[in-house]
Amino acid sequence: MQTPKTQPQMSRDYEAKNLLVLEGLEAVRKRPAMYIGSTDTRGLMHCLWEIIDNSVDEALAGYGEHIEVKLADDGSVIVHDHARGIPVDKEPRTGLSGVEVVFTKLHAGGKFGNSSYNATGGLHGVGASVVNALASRMDVQVDRNGSTWEMSFRRGVPGVFDGEGPEAKFTPQSGLRKLKRVAKAKTGTRVRYWPDRQIFLADAELSIKHLHDRARQTSFLVPGLKLDVVDERGDEPSHETFLHVGGITEFADFLAPDAQLTDIIRLQGKDSFVETVPMLDGDGAMTPTDVERDLDVDIAVRWGTGYDTVMKSFVNIIATPKGGTHVQGFERGLTRALVKSYEGTRGLLKAGEEVVRDDCLEGLTAVVTVRLAEPQFEGQTKEVLGTPPVNRLVARIVEQEMGKFLSAPKTRQMARTLQEKVVSAARTRVQARAHRETQRRKNALESSTLPPKLKDCRSTSVDSTELFIVEGDSALGTANVARNSEFQALLPIRGKILNVQKASVGDMLKNAECASIIQVVGAGSGRTFDVDSARYGKVIFMADADSDGAHIRCLLATLFFRYMRPLVEAGRVYSAVPPLHRFELINPKRGYDKYIYTYSDAEYQRKSLELTKKGQKFKEPQRYKGLGEMDADQLAETTMSPKHRMLRRLTVDDAEAAERVFEMLMGNEVAPRKEFIIEGAYALEADRIDA
User: pLDDT category, 500, cuts 50, 70, 90?
Assistant: First the structure.
């Protein structure tokens, strides 16, 4: 009989002495992720946003029109504003200066419902003190009351440094120090801090790109606010200035990914609502109190020729990437206004057709901003607005203002264009649904509605299967013999497909070649595309190695980029690289195969010289005019067999830049395309056309 193993005994000693009370900023250093989300690059950037947002809140309140942000080469960050400056007088409860209270006390600040701020980004009063706690050194200078005041901190503890940098000797000491006298009119705050590398991960670094994006976004949201961003790190310092007087109108124009269909429309309005909130009474009890809140709504919208929806939403310049009640209200009000606009119109909406929310949002670029005091967010990250009355009020304002635009005589023509686009989106949605119903892979006992010209493979494993889109029937015959029918499928297309950059979604779905490609891929198109539903692991374009072949590849790339972009982003779309020449060697020397293939004229010249120099005889090289000139073995060996072939993967590193290139090369504007062709005519080699 085996004796059971003894389990380790948990300590039963759990008394009051075992409880740990974290005082002040100790809690922040112990659990930093609770306050800044993480300790990687994201958390490091969050600290910077906290300091910048304090300066932006001042600008929102009407003080200060200039903010300077500098990433110094010594690892420090400097944020300088020209606003009112942090109060330097004594706070009555603590007896400490305003600066020391703001930077050392959690939940302390001027944004808890008093009259100093009406609409702010800061709500919890923890931002500045959290950054201070997570900084190895912080220096704060305030210009106020005709003097410059200074205070320094080490990991949240006030004191005096004996030199420059965080490694200098430090002596703890409370209180502000007066540095020098300045003009009474001069006010502002300068914060300089070194992030504490004991807290943040070694590979965490400040991203200048993210900083530029945030500064640009802020300059759009606060018109007239100038932000200077200086990066002194590295060999080449950079200096960017962001100033946008046009506000969210410019922002919507900047965000728009497609060609313009309507002008930018501003939907503005004000309203108020009553909110019941707990208020602290004289006895120290929380009493429910009705408070009247003012709501300012300012929205910029425009529709483009595309189908993607780009929407940015903000509450008091706080980005709400996951939406909330203001976005719900906007979408509801917009849909209502557009549906009502079809009443009494002839020929637009046929009997039995209906317009839904997704139809109204297709091709929309919108910037939704609301301002209100003490907004309720769902969680500490402030990603979702939860204030319930905002939904109803925003919907009412949007419906009213959008109704004016749709019925006004001045904008009637533009409104008609918009109405036609929404109806087209509704019809496309119905067509796409019909396509989706035929995309399921059927078994032998079911009738397949897939295109009859598809030569499907036997395997159903998405990981291993490949779909070759082949140009022309002549190449199809050879490719059908050359392929491995277990996992390689073939879909022939007739020459050049429709240029979908110019065509509408409905025209694209009506086009036989485009429709069959979408149907065979089996994942839908446009906004309904689901990359996980794709029937093949790889999609490979196989066209001739000439200029016509390059054009076909470009047209196919346009189709996939515009309507099946997630497949491109997943790295599952390729272009086959067929050879241009074949050398047949006579009595090949050691180290040479009997057949050698080259893929460009330059490579052909190099290989020819190499063989001649080494005394290797060869027959007159064969030049392939197209895939149809190869026999099945040659095509399999050079282009289709995974063992020997070369594939070029289509990637989208920068979607916005790619969109601009596609619009220039395949869009309606001729002038930019002509200029591009002329500029590159003498600089681009023929073999690099689609390299």
Answer: confident
pTM of the model: 0.68
Position 418 scores a pLDDT of: 93
Inform me whether the pLDDT recorded for 114 exceeds 70: no
Q: How confident is the model at residue 18 (pLDDT cuts 50, 70, 90)?
A: low
Q: Between these two residues, 626 and 164, which has the higher pLDDT value?
A: 164
Q: Which pLDDT value is given to residue 115?
A: 43
Which residues lie across from 141 on neighbouring strands? 150, 190
Confidence of residue 112 (pLDDT cuts 50, 70, 90): very low
Higher pLDDT, 76 or 306: 76
The residue assigned the tokens 């982003």 is 569
Which band of pLDDT confidence, cut at 50, 70 and 90, is reported for residue 665? confident
Domain residue extents for the chain? 26-242, 248-274+293-341+355-433, 449-578+649-688
Tokens of 76: 């420090």
**CA dist., res. 388 & res. 390, Å (int):** 5
C-alpha distances in angstroms, 323 versus 311, 328, 355, 362? 9, 8, 23, 17
Which tokens is 203 given? Answer: 């590979």
Q: Which residues, listed in sequence order, are joined to residue 386 by a DSSP beta bridge?
A: none
- Alpha helix (H) ranges present in 37-97? 41-60
Neighbours of 585 (CB within 10 A): 16
The residue count of the chain comes to 691
CATH 3.30.565.10 fits 26-242, yes or no: yes
Task: For Cα atoms 267, 59, 322, give the angle at the middle one, nearest 5 degrees.
Answer: 50
The type of residue at 490 is L
Task: Report the distance separating Cα 624 and Cα 615, nearest Å.
Answer: 25
Q: Does domain 248-274+293-341+355-433 have CATH number 3.40.50.10840?
A: no
Q: Which of 368, 388, 391, 369 is nearest to 378 (CA)?
A: 388
From the options 3.40.50.670, 3.90.950.20, 3.40.50.300, 3.30.230.10, give the CATH code of 449-578+649-688.
Answer: 3.40.50.670
How far is 643 from 637, CA to CA, in rounded Å? 8
3-state secondary structure of 655: helix
Residue 168 DSSP code: S
pLDDT, position 442: 46
Longest dimension (CA), the chain: 105
Q: How far apart are the C-alpha atoms of 345 and 357, rounded to whole Å? A: 20
Reported confidence tier of residue 67, pLDDT bands at 50, 70, 90: very high
- Asked if 74 contacts 65 with a C-beta cutoff of 8 angstroms, the reply is no
- Closest of 616, 655, 652, 430 to residue 528, by C-alpha: 430
